[in-house]
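Question (not urgent): is this output format expected?
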Amino acid sequence: MIDLYTWATPNGYKISVMLEELGLPYTVHPINLGKREQKRPEYLKINPNGRIPAIVDREEDNFTIFESGAILIYLAEKTGQLLPTDRKGRSRVIQWLMFQMGGVGPMQGQANVFLRYFPEKIPAAIQRYQKETRRLYTVLDTRLQESEYLAGDYSIADIATWTWVHVHSWAGVSVEGLPQLQRWMAAIAQRPAAQRGVKVPHEFRLDSDQESLLEQGKNIVER
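Got this back:
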């Protein structure tokens, strides 16, 4: 049994999509970012960085894993799925996973913050991060001209990247003129596990908790 600590963000989506793809049983523990539950002492024992997602593997003496990319690798190795075992194949997947972790996620995340949440509108900052995100999208599109998925077969690299790119409009970044990226996005969006996985964190974001996106964004800016 896996305990999943998550919320409705691209990084949160990664792990619920992965767990759905693998068919592993898991229990969801929502970490409400708007209420700063990620900073509570009991959660910091699981993820000392005070972020989501994190998992606890009950089958492995309550082993805890934080950082979304590390969780994806752990789950892939645990099940023998979505990560090749040969050295070159594994390396290709890890390269594209790191491209998302070090590029797409941080740049698109900053575009989100400056466009949606930052208390002052700074056009130069908004344009800088939107432009860089779009550039990274063109790298993906170029790669996808020669491969159906980022590293050959469908893998954790695709899960990690798709969960960010499929919400591109929230960052104000267009995917127009990137046909292979659009083709890839649509193909993953048709996967039942992807459809189920992105819904999981949203089940806990009820209107009754009176949380607003602006409040959550304020916490993102301040963290």
